[in-house]
Amino acid sequence: MKRLFLLALTACLLTTAATAQLRIVPQPVEVKNGEGFFRLSPSTAIGLAGNNAEATRVANMLSKKLSTVTGYTVPVTGGAINMGTSNIILSLNTTANATLGSEGYQLKVGTAGAQITANTAAGLFYGMQTFLQLLPAEVEGGKKVENLEWKAPVAEITDYPRFGWRGLMLDVSRHFFTKDEVKRYIDDMVKYKFNLLHWHLTDDQGWRIEIKSYPRLTEVGAWNVKKEGRFNYFSKPEPDEPRNYGGFYTQEDIKEIVQYAKERFVNVLPEIDVPGHSMAAIAAYPELTSTPGTYQVNSGEKFMEWPPSGHFYGLIDNALNPANEKVYTFLDKVFGEVAQLFPFEYLHMGGDETARNFWEKSEDIKKLMAKEKLKNLDEVQSYFVKRVTKIVNSKGKKLIGWDEILQGGLAPGAAVMSWQGMKGGIEAAKQGHEVVMSPQIFTYIDYMQGDRLMEPLVYASLRLKKTYEFDPLPEGVDAKYIKGGQANLWTEQIYNLRQAQYMTWPRGFAIAEAVWSPKAGRNFANFVDRIENQFPKLDQAQTKWAPSMYEPDVKAAKGVKNVVVTLVPEVDGLDMHYSFDNSWPDQYYPKYKAPVEVPKDADKMRIVTFKNGKQVGRFMTISVEELKLRAK
Ligand code: TNX
After folding, report:
1. Could you give the CA distance from residue 513 to residue 71 in angstroms, rounded to a whole number?
2. Ligand 1 centroid – CA 490 distance (Å)
3. Pairwise CA distance, residues 118 & 95, whole Å
4. pLDDT over 90 at 7, yes or no
5. Residue 102 and residue 123: Cα distance in Å, rounded?
6. Of 271, 353, 422, which is best to mutate to test ligand 1, by the most ligand atoms within 8 angstroms of its C-beta?
7. 344/599 Cα distance (integer angstroms)
8. Which residues, in sequence order, are CB contacts of 162 under 8 Å at separation 6+?
9. Residue 279, Cα to own-chain centre: how many angstroms?
10. What are the residues whose beta carbons fall under 8 Å from the beta carbon of 160, sequence distance 6 or more?
């Protein structure tokens, strides 16, 4: 009997060992597991086959990373070394492998050594990221670790991306992020094979890029009054409050970041958001609006109304005047300087959420409409977009804008970034325009990712599970127009880099997978298992991540005597424990099995979750008052 049991156990272990997945994010195209491990040793060297400056840089990065954590000296040697004695070979194909394309790679890990092969240095870089994921989490720690076995499982991986545009958008206007913070954000994104940083550089709360022809943009436009709390509900700044909060990037800073990104195979897409969202520019140069007056950079006090009807309007004019030639001179200079700083082929003009109520009243705009035979304000906006497109094209760049640029007719050659769902993108693709998908319902990582008890309040929610459903390529659309997708991190409610990281991870994993991995075989439980392998790596790198997926949604309904609470977990395998007696529950407290009725005199419920005996969620406390509200 006992022997039988043992036999069964060994069989089971073998099968799990044989089928245990390599926990890589984003999931590679093809993974073949092997047996055994490759171990780094004090004699490990990196062999670089192919004399190429970019590939050398990749090899040096790997060398630095491995040397730091192992304490060995891992040299980079050119030419003829083989996998033989625990070496890592990076090798550029002399004849391109068509399957791998310009970013793919093959990674072979054997017991004696490892080899990454690619057509390009970018491919080697992504192969390196995968290889690093196979090593212990401490490889991300950036400091020497003693007595650790530095090993990677034997495997053969062939991998290449589904889309060429794999982006994250960082809003540095609502809150400013320093040059080093932006670099840090790039460091994190490339580990998951993102290759595009969309840099939202201007908005109502700050103009962040030095423009030499218009110095007041940063002298005045980069600064507001420091406020903390709930954005958009702040008190109006007093006249004597110092406007010293914010900052900007000099043109030298911009060049440095663009170069830093390039060395990591990341393109940087700058966004200058016009004609709406322009309060910071208007504070610097009020003649740019159609409403004469004096203006200030917004500090988070309310200045727009968003009625449920959807027809939003401004309480203060934050839009450029499309009827003023000076505006186009301004944009010509601004986009001219921007084009010089960013090698990427696109410039983003924003174009979103332009309040029309001040345009409506403007005599200038009425005259423009008569002169240009524009029937309505959609056509006025389209007129503006077309002129900006010409300016951008005259600088040798292609234009991309938010899906509002479709209104009143899309400018020839303009690309569309679809944020209000996928429909704008679908429409643009049907008209033969290039499209990047970033629909808010799947990719707005400024939204709350957990129960609103636990997160800074934002007007909408986006759970990890929903993010994971993102597919940039809708049925029936010609794939050649869909360049890819991205997540957008708007920062109204994000005051620092730690919170930016928290909002990005783990949802960024889901986006990374949507834009890199094959569509087939997608499975949320499997994804969760693989991202759980990333959390220790983020911890090592001191990157904050959100445990929200371990915290249930708390739902309430009217019961017989009192409200009834339902806990809806997002991931499998959670043990949810609770109390109504105000004490902090642990894994020995009542375990949630089915909806529970709140005891008569209870005033709060506390909840905590465990997985495999380990606390994974934070403590959640919800008042019975709030439960009653939710029951309504
Ligand atoms: C809409 S998306 C905006 C942003 C806000 C965001 C908040 C888009 C093009 N415009 O200005 O920050 O919602 O979720």
Report:
1. 33
2. 7
3. 10
4. no
5. 7
6. 353
7. 61
8. 515, 516, 517, 518, 519
9. 25
10. 29, 99, 100, 101, 103, 104, 105, 123
Q: List, chain by chain if needed, residues with CB within 6 Å of any ligand 1 atom.
A: 352-353, 402, 419, 444, 446, 490, 492
Mapped onto helix, strand or coil, the DSSP state of residue 528 is helix
Looking from the CA of residue 417, the nearest atom of ligand 1 is 9
pTM, two decimals, is 0.96
Tell me the C-alpha to C-alpha distance, in Å, between residue 139 and each of 69, 143, 563: 6, 8, 49
Instruction: Report how far residue 624's alpha carbon sits from residue 579's, in angstroms, rounded to the nearest whole number.
Output: 12
Active site residues: 203, 277, 353
Q: Kindly state the percentage of the chain with pLDDT values over 70.
A: 96
126 Cα: distance to centroid of ligand 1 (angstroms): 31
Q: Taking every pair of C-alpha atoms in the chain, what is the biggest distance, in angstroms?
A: 95
Residue to substitute in 352, 400, 441 for testing ligand 1 pocket (most ligand atoms within 8 angstroms of CB): 352
pLDDT band at 18 (very low <50, low <70, confident <90, very high): very low
pLDDT per residue as tens digits for the range 141-150: 999 999 999 9
Cβ pair 486, 167 in contact under 8 A? yes
Measured from the Cβ of residue 81, the count of other Cβ atoms closer than 10 Å reads 17
174 Cα nearest atom in ligand 1: 12
- Helix and strand totals (H; E) in the chain: 19, 28
pLDDT in tens, 393-444: 999 999 999 999 999 999 999 999 999 999 999 999 999 999 999 999 999 9
Could you give all domains of the chain from N- to C-terminal order, each with its CATH number? 2-159 (3.30.379.10), 165-540 (3.20.20.80), 551-631 (2.60.40)
Using CA positions, which residue lies closest to atom 9 of ligand 1?
352
Ligand 1: distance of its center to the CA of 446 in Å? 9
| Spatial contact of 218 and 210, defined as CB atoms under 8 Å apart | yes
Nearest CA to ligand 1 atom 6: 490
Mutating to test ligand 1, I would choose from 203, 407, 488 the residue with most ligand atoms within 8 A of its C-beta, which is 488
Which backbone phi and psi does 451 adopt, to 5 degrees? -55, 140
Question: Smallest Cα–Cα separation from 401: which of 423, 369, 433, 374?
Answer: 433
Would you tell me the crossing angle of helices 325-341 and 251-262 to the nearest 10 degrees? 50
Looking from the CA of residue 419, the nearest atom of ligand 1 is 2
For ligand 1, the distance from its centroid to the CA atom of residue 535, given in whole angstroms, is 29
Cβ atoms of 213 and 198 closer than 8 Å? no
The dihedral formed by the CA atoms of 327, 329, 334 and 335, expressed in degrees to the nearest 10: 100
Atom of ligand 1 nearest to the CA of 492: 12
Nearest to 194 by CA among 613, 585, 487: 487
582 vs 290, 468, 605, CA distance in Å? 58, 36, 7
Nearest to 289 by CA among 399, 237, 236, 364: 364
Q: What is the pLDDT of residues 341-379, one digit of tens each?
A: 999 999 999 999 999 999 999 999 999 999 999 999 999
Taking a C-beta distance cutoff of 8 angstroms, is the pair 155, 129 a contact? no
What distance in Å separates the CA atoms of residue 75 and residue 58, rounded to the nearest whole number? 13
